[in-house]
Amino acid sequence: MKRPLIAGNWKMNLNRTQAITLAASVAQEAVHWPTVHVALCPPAVYLDVVGQVLRNSPVALGGQNAHWETAGAYTGELSPSMLVDVGCVFVILGHSERRQYFGETDEVVNRKVKAALEAGLRPIVCLGETLQQREADQTQQVIRTQFEGSLADLSLDEIRQVVLAYEPVWAIGTGKVATPQQAEEVHALLRQLLQQRYNEATARAVIIQYGGSVKPENAAELLSQPNVDGALVGGASLKAQDFMRIVAAAHAAVEDA
Ligand code: PEP
User: Measured from the CB, is residue 93 less than 6 Å from ligand 1?
Assistant: First the structure.
């Protein structure tokens, strides 16, 4: 099994003191789980200070969004190079909340992915169907379309830097988790799409995370699926103890593989 990636998406939560305290706890605990790659994605305004807390720890820093331009008149936006400047390694792109509330299309996500790669960031690209689409049996088609659009024109070297996160929209922040079988089915499809467009070795190398109400109680089963290489965690990443139990479950999955 590849080294799994467990990333915490703090979304628009916590204040400065809470962010520092949470990052320090995760950094302290993460040294016990070297088999797992751990990342934290705090709100942009806390990236710098959380980056300082994580310095000299095994925990990576990630942004929650970035613009596609390197600089310019884009009030309120952040460029990929600014994220690199404060120590980011990862950036979440195309999260369903960005797609749903801020109108991000696959084309926009693709521009952002290319800009992030150009700046040296590893994009965590989110894909997933709504409940309506799942009930209409459109999951596979939606995933194919998002894959083709969000990841258009990426070279083999570039796709190897990308992390995919399958996040069924109906499972995000709802407490409704995909069954391990539902997750595995979509992850296997993504692996197949990677193989068709690139090659088998590349398809195997790309990290595919599951996201959507991952909790300490369901993490082990999800992470034991053959094509699930980690988790993107929202709510449960806001408590160090819960988040580290998910990291521990990822470690156990590596040991069992
Ligand atoms: C997310 O924000 O990417 C997410 C999966 O959230 P939650 O774990 O709260 O469902």
Answer: no
Band the pLDDT of 257: cuts 50, 70, 90.
Answer: confident
Ligand 1 contacts CB of residue 9 (under 6 A): yes
The whole domain housing 121 covers: 5-256
| Angle (nearest 5°) at CA 197 between 206 and 67 | 65
Backbone phi and psi for residue 65, each to the nearest 5 degrees, phi listed first = -175, 160
Q: Looking at the 3D structure of the chain, how many domains does it have?
A: 1
Nearest protein CA to atom 8 of ligand 1, as residue? 234
Q: Does ligand 1 lie within 6 Å of residue 169's CB atom?
A: no
Q: What CATH number has the domain bearing residue 244?
A: 3.20.20.70
Tell me, yes or no, if 167 is annotated catalytic: yes
95 flagged as catalytic: yes
Helix, strand or coil for residue 84?
Answer: helix
Q: In sequence order, which ranges of 43-172 are alpha helices (DSSP H)? A: 47-54, 80-85, 96-102, 106-119, 131-135, 139-150, 156-159
Q: Report the separation in Å between the CA atom of 125 and the middle of ligand 1, taken as the mean of its atom positions.
A: 14
Q: Look at residue 1 and tell me whether its pLDDT is greater than 80.
A: no
